[in-house]
Amino acid sequence: MDYKAYIEEKLPEELRAEGVKDLIVTPPDPAMGDFALPCFKFAKLFRKSPAVIAEELAKTLQSDDVISEISAVNGYLNFKIDKRGFARETLSRILTEREKYGASEMGKGKTICIDYSSVNIAKPFHIGHLSTTVLGGALYRIYKFLGYRTVGINHLGDYGTQFGKLISAYKHWGNREDAEKRGIHAVNELYVRFNKEATEEMEQEAREYFRLIESGDREANELFEWFKELTMRYVRTIYDRLHVTFDSYAGERFYTDKMQPVLDELEEKGLLKESQGAKIVDLEPYGMPPCLILRSDGASLYATRDLATAIYRKNTYDFDKCLYVVAYQQNLHFKQVFKVLELMGKEWAKDLVHVAYGMVSLEDGAMSTREGKVVWLEDVISRCVEKALKVITEKNPALENKEEVAEKVGVGAVVFGALYNNKIKDIVFSYDKALNFEGETSVYVQYTCARCSSVLAKARAEGTDWNFEEIPELAPQEFELIKELALLPETLVSAAEKYEPSILARFCVDAAQKFNKFYIDCKILQAETEEKKKFRLALTEATLITLTNALTLLGIGVPEKM
Asked: How far apart are CA 352 and CA 342, in angstroms?
């Protein structure tokens, strides 16, 4: 049952018109009630104080089989629900729906495009790619779980003069056997060397090679496609570890022949103006600097390609929303692009969303920099997995498949570390903190899942089933856990609406904390009665199902043992 919707239906019509369901909260003190409606928003509507409004509503509303008590306290209308009925309904739903628990059809018939990760050809993943990759991956899974048609797009960085430089460097210093053996790192070393050692003659040569790529020269394009193949071979190993997938790898180069119609349309609508030889769209009336469309030499820019990209995606996918998971440094760029599309008369420009995020660095301050001084993401993941293996070996030396468990724990720690805080915050990644079994970490949540699995395995070994018939009198710890588990569906909706997977990550920690309090305070296998034992086992399985679903949506594996 959707208890918030049920409460809303009990309220007067003039309140329902205000959309009160979204205002209903869970009081911090359970003694106050299970749900509460703050009445402050209605003071102007009724021309009364919030306290008076709450008191009058409490007097007029009737309790029933679902709502056992209604009271008013300091401007809040508090509702206590029938705890046993709530527990029965919540557990039955989770145990019936299982891996579908939390899913919905709210997105049926709607399409969401998500542009994320967007790696550069011939360059390895660095730690700066972590946030866009795992944020986009989590949003992709969440929207899909909520019934949307979801299109994951990896907008490859595969266009520009740097590829001419790369071909020049390869021609001077490259070795195909070495590149095939060491992959993208060997190619990237050539690019770094070019930027350090290139002569003016080589710079000219690089410009010529880029011209050859654009003009369709066979040799230049074969080399470019080989660099791309090496890159994709490499990045897919990272994506596999992070449980990230894409439906399209159409990159910048794909839109080369799609820019002219955009330029023609801008010209036709009188939006394109000349400025010092360049072509711009004047955005000063909207409080922004001009959007540069073509350089004075006629070369296109990111904005030109992004305009073509947005139009192509709308024509191809007819999206209801198109998200760009890109760092906050690009705020102005996307504001300009979206405004230009709006000025072009594209009504759907309002459906374009820049999902901005902060930067990632390590505790020593290291992060992606120029001239080859980078922190590779694969090294961060591998180091986390190695540290996880060491911790697991110390804690449980007899554990089978330790390497497999360490992979789930280590990768999970990296992903969770990037998702736990609000996305716009800069992140300082700490290996020790990320792998803390007691902190607000994925390891803590995974260990809670393993604890649930262990309890259930022991019950099965004893021949115990947990098909409960009656809900016993609930201990406070039991009810608080059930209330938390019941929040998964609305948590997923909130994470989707706010483009904020951290809401789901925090839910995981909160649910794990409530389970561990229940586990410590309430005997499960040694419960006082058979009725309580079955109920508590059912609650344990419901916790495992809920946490598994939540972690999976974040892109984190769930070990059975740790």
From this structure: 10
Asked if residues 138 and 117 have their Cβ atoms less than 8 Å apart, the reply is no
Find the DSSP H helices in 344-475: 377-395, 402-419, 431-434, 442-461
Q: Output 160 or 548, whichever has higher pLDDT.
A: 548
Q: pLDDT, tens digit, for every residue of 199-247? A: 999 999 998 998 898 888 999 999 999 999 999 999 999 999 999 999 9
Please check whether residue 505 is in contact with residue 415, taking contact to mean a CB–CB distance below 8 angstroms: no
Nearest to 266 by CA among 311, 299, 302: 311
Instruction: Determine contact, residues 206/194, Cβ cutoff 8 Å.
Output: yes
Q: How far is Cα 127 from Cα 383, in angstroms, rounded to an integer?
A: 13
Assign 408 to helix, strand or coil: helix
Distance CA 154, CA 468 (A): 48
Q: Which domains does the chain have, with CATH numbers?
A: 3-81 (3.30.1360.70)
For residue 321, what are the CA distances in angstroms to 192, 204, 269, 372, 455? 38, 43, 25, 37, 43
Burial class of residue 188 (count of CB atoms within 10 Å of its CB; 0-12, 13-18, 19+):
buried
Cα 298 from chain centroid (whole Å): 38
Cβ neighbour number for residue 106 with a 10 Å cutoff: 15
Q: How far apart are CA 410 and CA 95, in angstroms?
A: 29
Residue count (the chain): 562
**Average predicted confidence (pLDDT) for the chain:** 92
Q: Are 423 and 402 in contact (CB under 8 A)?
A: no
Q: Are 42 and 15 in contact (CB under 8 A)?
A: yes
**Alpha carbon distances (Å) from 95 to 181, 214, 460, 542:** 50, 58, 17, 6
- Spatial distance between the Cα atoms of 472 and 468, rounded to a whole number of angstroms: 10
Question: Distance (Å, rounded) from C-alpha 562 to C-alpha 557?
Answer: 12
Say if strands 76-81 and 35-38 run parallel, antiparallel, or are unpaired: antiparallel
pTM higher than the cut 0.85: yes
Closest CA to 311 of 274, 344, 336, 285: 344
- The C-alpha angle with vertex 329 and arms to 417 and 128, in degrees rounded to 5, equals 35
Q: Of 174, 154, 279, 276, which Cα lies nearest the Cα of 227?
A: 174
Measure CA 427 to chain center.
15
Q: What is the DSSP string of 96-140?
A: HHGGGTT--STTTT-EEEEE---PBTTS--BGGGHHHHHHHHHHH
Helix (H) or strand (E) holding 294: strand 291-294
